[in-house]
Design brief:
Elements: H1 6-17, H2 24-44, E1 54-58, E2 64-66, H3 67-82, E3 86-91, E4 98-99, E5 109-117, E6 128-136, H4 145-148, E7 157-163, E8 167-172, E9 178-183, E10 188-193, E11 204-206, H5 217-224, E12 232-233, H6 239-249, E13 252-255, E14 266-267, H7 268-281, E15 285-287, E16 305-306, E17 308-311, H8 313-321
Parallel strand pairs: 3-5, 11-12, 11-13
Antiparallel strand pairs: 1-2, 3-4, 5-6, 6-7, 7-8, 8-9, 9-10, 13-17, 14-16, 15-17
Helix pairs in contact: 2-3
The structure holds 2,5-anhydro-1,6-di-O-phosphono-D-mannitol and magnesium ion.
Length: 323
Amino acid sequence: MAEISVIEHIHSMQLLWSPMATGQFTSLMHDLILSAKIISRSVTKAGLVDILGGTGDINIQGEQVQKLDDFANSVMIYRMKNCGVVCALGSEEEDELIIVDTDKPRGNYVIFFDPLDGSSNIDANVSIGTIFSIYRVDDNTELTKENILQKGTEQVAAGYFLYGPSTMMVYSTGHGVHGFTLDPSVGEFLLSHENIRIPASGKYYSANLANYAKWSEQDQKAMDSFNNGKYSLRYVGSLVADFHRTLLYGGLFSYPADSKNANGKLRLLYEANPLSFLIEQAGGLAFDGNGKRVLEIEPKEVHVRTAFLFGSKEDVEQYRKAF
Ligand code: AHM
Ligand code: MG
């Protein structure tokens, strides 16, 4: 059987959907994939080299920075700034947007990323990941925050790398969701999950139930409706891992707003938008806490947060009925 590498796949999708493509996007994906392989290598060796634990710093989100967070962030920033086709980038770990210097080669792509999602799980060898979201701006667009921040519907591509028992890449360019598994013996991501479709309903629901007392009455009621004997509870606490399970098995994930986090905890640009793009492409649904499609939220700030509800169509509809 012919084994298809992720770059081959991206290239063939481009020929199919944008035959006039210049190759800039493939070049961006190539550098993104290289970043993930470098991060994956360090994640795999984490217990052997001195890269576990905190740096002692607190990030813009008010959270402890882990050494691996810091490492993944530097790898991503370096590669994306130097890939020649990105003009602006935003990282969950950085206070401000980064504009690529005009004296460097740069193109029209903008990328947002969460370099290492699931920080609280790093030292316990639990699955973590890197999430990315890619946009384009027109030639000669002034690179102001207002022009760079766009609704999730404008994403040209989104995806994630999951550092789990195996390292996987899942991506979409708006033509289905495709999954690849890193084969360390050849150093390539090979196609393993073509055209992933989320089941119409699943048997798992997922939420940090320790926050139950802090949720609105509606969110409590909605979540209670899943305690009906049909579902089991699963919650990793690494969004990438909880998302990947939900995508493959179906079910529901909810991180509602609460009395501590009035706008929820998860970040629109680095987490909710890319994952909503994927879940919709796979046939599922994604909403904020007001029943609005996440992809239609107009982002005003780089680090804006949102309540995040996603999953199989029937399960998300069941949750929404409580409102
Ligand atoms: P991180 O990007 O700093 O790791 O934070 C986001 C993580 C998500 O991966 C996960 O869904 C959530 O925070 C878990 O939060 P909690 O510990 O409140 O359940
Ligand atoms: Mg995260």
